[in-house]
Amino acid sequence: MVLLRSALSLPRSSSSIRSSLRHSIRSHNSSSSPTISPLYPHSSTYSYSLGLSYASKYSPPFIAPNQKIEPYGFMNRDKEDGIVKWVNEMMDFPAGRGELTSGQDGGWSEGVQKDVRKYGAGEDFFGIQRVGNDLHLSLSDGVGGWTNRVDPSLFSQALCYHYSTIASQFASSSPVEILDKAYRNLLDDQRVVAGGATLVGVRLGEEGDASFVNLGDSGYAIMKNDQIKYISKPQTHFFNCPLQLSKIPKDMRQAGIIHDSPNMADVKEIELEVGDVVILFTDGLSDNLPTSHLPLLSSSLTQLLNSPLNSHLTQTERDAEYARLFADILVGYGRMAMARTGDEKGWKTPFEVEATEKVPKNNWRGGKIDDITVMTAVVSESD
């Protein structure tokens, strides 16, 4: 693999976050809200503020700004097709791509929104589905090893589509049951001839009950008061080879291609509390940003939101700002970590650390350029 390099580097201190975001918090009320909050305005229990940010590896600074991007996934297909409509609906959710620029609304300028549409999520994709008083979130990372055969983003987009569709039809199903049904539907879907992907999903209930399913090396974390309460462990067959669902054409079924099943997924039930932050992420984040950096970044954002400059924010607005900005910060810092060469002093990327241990002959250094997607949900008391 050829590792692209960039001049980006991680800021030395949290002051850079405060300086780049201070204006955005003050001026954000002048623009449309990029979050879903409160999610359940008539609920007597909990509501969730949602943040979303993603960036394709085939986007600046890892490619030239004028480089032509070939269309991928379902976005540019028959607009009468249900999956095409759904993918475009997901792409219409306000989202960042980790570009936090001073003087703009949290980095979510009109130009950034155009770039979000232009570059998309790469081989990652996501789903957001309300079902009664529940919220189902899903993230999928298409396996790039299929690139020479098919477009890997077709599988990840279709998996999230079927996951969201099944969730809407079977409200009482658990995420692992939804994943099983979604995978079966994908195997019957003639629009996807081959491919593979990981998936992490969660059902967030109005009473704070959260049910997770995770297959592969995407993952989730729960934080409170800027500390990690729980973080999932990646599922892998061996280094850089995650557990994955796949659809294998007949002519390739004897080739030893990895073919895992939904019943191999990790499942977990967690009771959420007010102030908890749920984070879903693909391995573009976890391969590049050490887990120990999450509390540091969260603390810096909390300090910003608690500053006198932001005293005008209500608790609902504060939760919404935290959700959207934390997702964007994690994507931004994850992308900066991708650009590390391994020559910098201090910390190493998790991918470099693991590669050094598992495959030292490869002499991997620095970050791993990849697609990256982060979703956040802040638990609040309903009004």
Helix and strand topology:
Layout: H1 15-27, E1 46-55, H2 82-91, H3 110-119, E2 124-131, E3 134-142, H4 152-169, H5 175-188, E4 195-204, E5 209-215, E6 219-224, E7 227-231, E8 236-238, E9 241-242, E10 245-247, E11 266-271, E12 277-281, H6 283-286, H7 293-305, H8 315-338, H9 350-358, E13 372-381
Antiparallel strand pairs: 1-13, 2-3, 3-4, 4-5, 4-10, 5-11, 6-7, 6-12, 8-9, 12-13
EC number: 3.1.3.16
Domain PPM-type phosphatase: 118-379
GO molecular function, one term: metal ion binding
Arithmetic mean of pLDDT = 86
- The total of helices stands at 9
Q: Provide the CATH superfamily.
A: PPM-type phosphatase domain
Shape type: globular
User: What number of domains?
Assistant: 1
CATH topology: Phosphatase 2c, domain 1
Q: Structural class, judged by helices and strands? A: alpha+beta
* CATH architecture label: 4-Layer Sandwich
Rg on CA atoms, Å? 20 Å
* SSE ordering: HEHHEEHHEEEEEEEEEHHHHE
How many beta-strand elements?
13
Largest sheet: 6 strands, antiparallel
The helix content, as a percent range, equals 25-40%
- % residues in beta strands: 15-25%
Low-confidence stretches: 1-44
Instruction: Measure the end-to-end span.
Output: 52 Å
CATH class: Alpha Beta
